């Protein structure tokens, strides 16, 4: 198998990037708990933080925080923050109470909602102590979800990176798929890889603690999410090797992602085509159904999820859209470089954010569709701009062939709604 080459004379890998450092408008990394706790069926996420953090999760999840079965908040009171109480003892007591009440928990994540200097707790050391105390039944890990130090999807990256050092050592040659996908989407990926003849495939995170993969010098891994740079680095420190590829959004991206894996495992071209031809055709036809609404439309991305560059590649190459600006919280070419190679020059690439300056550019551009966070969507809609919530692209199944049409439809829907409203107003 050969890897997909960029078209002659195109590609954005080497164009200048506008780097901005100012006020940001993004969710914090705590939000990742909402999809991670659904993926890992015997894990529990205990957020150590303030009432504000509890209210955030309650609002973001749409449920009462303590009614949710596998995440909760250990609220720090004023006496804790002032150092007047022994927060370590209180944390140990709360963890013991939780594990006694929930014997099904096999992995417990202590999630910091603020830097350790603020909450007066070293959660890393607390996790080591509690893990020893509750071994072997429960493994306790910690990571930072602070909105001061993380953006929206970095919570998942921090969580998976925290798991890598404690994964068992293996000498087996295996493919590791990295990133939390809905089970039905993960099953589709495993089915495609099996049809290609690749059987030794593991997933991080696994659905249950006793299914966690090993890692070693014979492990090769493919990222399924472009926001997992820290996890990538942690795996490489363990000796694993990264298969760089465009991300599996749309027909082209999925084919390129699979082709990179096929090249690594010497899959014969005939077997690759037999495994992918039918789903590729379904994906093309499904995307075409949404392309009529998207073709020729201009799109502007605010930085939010780190999905922006792969999504822009999909929308411009498969759906006929024109990208005006593609903003991303971080741009790591060792992660999204293959997508940048396929992205035609023209749009502004911006990294980080100064929200006031970017709002000025968005208003001046007046693109047909603006992808942004919840906090910006309603004000921009009020100014006459059609918007798409970036958060929906993380919560909705959008990877691989069978979801390609759904992904295109997510962007077509606000344009259809706006067209319907204009027609209704004209009547």
From TrEMBL:
Necessary cofactors: [4Fe-4S] cluster
Residues that, per the record, bind [4Fe-4S] cluster: 28, 53, 114
Transport keyword on record: no
One Pfam family this sequence matches: Oxidored_nitro
Organism of origin: Palleronia aestuarii
Name listed for the protein in its UniProt record: Light-independent protochlorophyllide reductase subunit N
This protein's encoding gene: bchN
UniProt catalytic activity: chlorophyllide a + oxidized 2[4Fe-4S]-[ferredoxin] + 2 ADP + 2 phosphate = protochlorophyllide a + reduced 2[4Fe-4S]-[ferredoxin] + 2 ATP + 2 H2O
Enzyme class: oxidoreductase
Record bears the keyword Protein transport: no
Pathway the protein contributes to: Porphyrin-containing compound metabolism; bacteriochlorophyll biosynthesis (light-independent)
Any GO BP: photosynthesis, dark reaction
Similarity section: Belongs to the BchN/ChlN family.
Domain Nitrogenase/oxidoreductase component, first and last residues per copy: 28-405
Segments forming a coiled coil: none
Subunit note: Protochlorophyllide reductase is composed of three subunits; BchL, BchN and BchB. Forms a heterotetramer of two BchB and two BchN subunits.
